[in-house]
Amino acid sequence: MLDTVSTDRVSTLSALANAGILAAPLFTVAAVVQAATRDGYDITRHPVSMLALGDLGWVQTTSFVVVGLLSVAAAAGTGAAKATRALHAAIGVGLLIAAVFRMDASDGFPLGTPEGRLTTMSGHMIVHNAGASVSFFSMIALCFVLAAGFRRTGQVGWAVSGRFAGVLFALGLAWAMTGGTGGALTLFLGVAIAWNWIAAATLRRRRQA
Hints:
mainly alpha, DUF998, transmembrane, DUF998 domain-containing protein, transmembrane helix, membrane
């Protein structure tokens, strides 16, 4: 009986961890498809979060909710160190906050919105940015935490690529936060590179375990 319970628990945790690995590619595909099809949206000017605005905004909101829950599932299912679990959970919680509190319309999106960047932010946009920041900084930190684990086991390629992904995301985020040209694009690329590397690294660790 105990063996059965133990086996069932391992299977459940494994399923949760595997679900978490899907978060990054699902988010990336959903964002790219919407960026290519939403009228008036320009990924070099508009952050992905702005896709949650307008008549089809529910698509991006659903994406935030799904990938947020998948990231929390990864935290619950992984048998990794406490810091790794905490960072997975923080990524998920930040995304769920971003799903509930939306950005303000600006810079011509959705269609009909006046051109130009915002000069003030609403309360819900401030909370959105706070949630997104939690996710962003957690992703950057997780890249370095996982890279350190690979370095300890002599997997140099994975260690170097993890640090590279973290640095790229940090640079892309800094460029976007300072209002650099094309900052929305550098932010998205940073998220896509770092988060999909985390997914690949997590899958590798699971296969080795």
